[in-house]
Design a protein that fits this description.
mainly alpha; about 0% strand; elongated
Length: about 60
């Protein structure tokens, strides 16, 4: 997932929070969990890439 897609998801979550009559807590929790999982996956990939780069430079 690209940064702009994560940003878009966060904006959608913000709208849900501002208009609670359109979503319940479970919907918001699912959306936040999806964003967190995508963020964690990106962070792990970046970390692995950095480790590979460091190992290559040695």
């Amino acid at each position: 997932m690209k940064l702009y897609e994560i940003t878009e998801q966060l904006e959608n979550i913000k709208e849900l929070l501002e208009n609670p009559e359109f979503a319940d807590n479970a919907d918001i929790a699912k959306a936040l969990d999806a964003v967190q999982q995508d963020f964690d996956k990106k962070r792990k990939m970046s970390s692995m890439s950095l480790k590979i780069q460091k190992a290559t430079l040695k």
